[in-house]
Design a protein that fits this description.
- The protein is α+β, with helices and mostly antiparallel strands.
- It has one domain: Nucleic acid-binding proteins (OB fold (Dihydrolipoamide Acetyltransferase, E2P)).
- The protein contains one helix and six strands; from the N terminus they run αββββββ.
- The protein has a five-stranded mixed barrel with strand order 1-3-4-6-5.
- A hairpin with a 5-residue loop joins β3 and β4.
- It is globular.
Length: 126
């Protein structure tokens, strides 16, 4: 029974990737699974808009991860995700300069994902 559930989840995930690969004409669009690394923090912009910011990681090959920052706007801020949760996100990627920690100019960029859609994604570890 447990193996059937895992196979069903794998099938749904592959079907999702095949479906959305046709619509990904924009090079800044991202759709995939990310792991939340820390508890998201809410901020208010002009005392009227909610913005939730969280650090996350995109799992890559060989156990490596790409660190990104997630920005949730509007109704998406009501979702309560915790550290080490896996979520399925869609949104647009932007690159911003990191704040320099010294007087020298920083050449590294901060990857930010503005989330448009989000769904919980469960991973079963045996």
């Amino acid at each position: 029974m447990f193996a059937k559930i895992i196979n069903l989840l794998k099938y749904i995930y592959i079907l999702f990737l095949k479906t959305y690969s046709y619509f990904m004409g924009d090079t800044n669009f991202f759709s995939g699974v990310v792991q939340i690394l820390e508890t998201p923090k809410q901020h208010f912009v002009n005392n009227s808009f909610n913005v939730t910011v969280a650090r996350a990681a995109i799992p890559l090959k060989y156990g490596k991860m790409q660190l990104i920052h997630l920005n949730f706007w509007g109704a998406l801020t009501k979702n309560s995700y915790k550290s080490n949760d896996y979520i399925l996100v869609e949104g647009y990627i932007s690159l911003r300069d990191e704040l320099p920690q010294s007087i020298f100019k920083s050449t590294s960029k901060q990857v930010t994902l503005t989330v448009l859609k989000v769904r919980p994604f469960f991973i079963f570890k045996l």
